[in-house]
Amino acid sequence: MRKNLYFIIILFSLTSCYTYQVKKQVDPAADNKQNTAAQMKSTTTASQSLNAQQMPAPVNIQEKLASGKNVRIEADGKSYKVIVDKWESDSLVAHPVHNPKKILKFHKNQINAEKIAEKRFSQPIADILTVTAYAAIGVGIYLLVR
Fold first, then answer.
1. What secondary structure does DSSP assign to 2-27, as a single string?
2. How far apart are CA 117 and CA 120, in angstroms?
3. Which residues of 20-30 are buried (b: 16+ CB within 10 A; e: fewer)?
4. Gyration radius (Cα) of the chain, Å
5. Angle at 40 between CA 38 and CA 42, to 5 degrees
6. Do 83 and 92 meet the contact criterion of CB atoms below 8 Å apart?
């Protein structure tokens, strides 16, 4: 039992509260539901606005990948966790997260814009770790008192 307890404690101490998450695009159809009454007055304007909303908004990779951001990108079918250094015209200059001496360069056409994930704090994981830590402390106190 003690080996399992030690294993669980070590496992939770190595867990990070930061995860890579893809930013969700704003859905124009969801915003449009609020204005359905105004659009129902004229069917021509409603059909024109629906056609305009079906086209995806162009994604500006250079805005998503600003200098200093810690991101996970997919380029040429491979996934990279990098910190963005700068943009040199159409090329991204970055370095791997744990290797600042190595320089990586990607052309903006190589990068899959839909799979750019930023490193963010994950509140659910932090809550799980906090509850687990409190439970472990409670069990430890119980075992000492018993």
1. HHHHHHHHHHHHT--SEEEEEPPPP-
2. 9
3. beeeeeeeeee
4. 24
5. 95
6. no
The type of residue at 104 is L
Give the pair of three-digit tokens for residue 141: 């106190």
CA distance 20 to 119: 4
Tokens describing residue 108? 């903006």
The tens place of each residue's pLDDT in the chain, 146 residues long, gives: 777 777 777 776 777 788 888 877 655 554 555 444 444 444 444 444 444 444 444 557 888 888 888 999 998 889 999 999 999 988 899 999 989 899 999 998 888 888 888 988 889 888 888 888 898 889 889 989 98
Name 69's Cβ contacts closer than 8 Å, sequence gap at least 6.
83, 84, 118
Q: Which residue has the tokens 């070590």?
A: 10
